[in-house]
From TrEMBL:
<keyword id="KW-0645">Protease</keyword>
<dbReference type="GO" id="GO:0008233">
    <property type="term" value="F:peptidase activity"/>
</dbReference>
<dbReference type="InterPro" id="IPR002933">
    <property type="entry name" value="Peptidase_M20"/>
</dbReference>
<dbReference type="Pfam" id="PF01546">
    <property type="entry name" value="Peptidase_M20"/>
</dbReference>
<dbReference type="GO" id="GO:0046872">
    <property type="term" value="F:metal ion binding"/>
</dbReference>
<keyword id="KW-0479">Metal-binding</keyword>
<dbReference type="GO" id="GO:0006508">
    <property type="term" value="P:proteolysis"/>
</dbReference>
<keyword id="KW-0378">Hydrolase</keyword>
<protein>
    <recommendedName>
        <fullName>Peptidase M20 dimerisation domain-containing protein</fullName>
    </recommendedName>
</protein>
<dbReference type="GO" id="GO:0006751">
    <property type="term" value="P:glutathione catabolic process"/>
</dbReference>
<dbReference type="InterPro" id="IPR051458">
    <property type="entry name" value="Cyt/Met_Dipeptidase"/>
</dbReference>
Amino acid sequence: MIKTLKKFISIETIANDEKSNNKGIELVSNLLKSIEFSVSVEGDSPYNQPVIIAKYTNQNSTKKVTLYSHYDVEKIHRKEKWNTNPFDLTEKEGRYYARGIADNKGILLSRIFSLIELKNNDEELPNILWIIQGEEEVAGKTTFDVIPKHIEEFHSKIYVEETGVYQKNIPVIFHLPKTTNRPKFMDDLNNVIYDGKAIYANRHLNKFTKCPFLTNIPNDAYYIGFGPNDSLCNIHRDNESLSIENLVKHNDVFKKFIKWINKTEI
């Protein structure tokens, strides 16, 4: 995975860079196609950052999950403030440094490689709708136009955020809708992916702008967020980074999550 991650990081998927965005789209699409996802690139993006719609179909299963990610990254505002080349993945003191490593390229690739490993081990995958947008950092409108029909047609009960966080080395599971009684399946999920050690937050991951994913989740569905980010990530700022240990763990966590989807009765 690290070789591919270095390549992905080196592709400057910033708004209006058509060549780089196309390269990023191609890299992600080819990885997903290698494990039998059907992939379409949709939307007339004024920023040259259309939406990747990836679907995995398992005709022998009724289990479904919708995933959300993005391939674009925040532009570099002050390159002189970076201690490393922002588009060259650098390992330093237990962390990876690079633009997009925490938001969202590291997590996106970790999850793709989790699925690749499951497939290589002949593990069953559920039906998956994966929305991977390209206008997250510019708050573009293209994804708002593209995804409603796919969400309506796919109609899953579980919607998974692009990442999540650790607070003081303890994983957090975000969940919605707002409730005074946490859904019973949450404790089962916690036990499966975090050995019951996660804490809960009955809200969504912090967002800088209105999110097309959040706004299109059906009222009768569940939103879940979990992932490897922490307070040191510096998202949208200089010297963005991600804990290597947390990223490695997330690969296993996400495989456990997919297996849980195959068994849960939500």
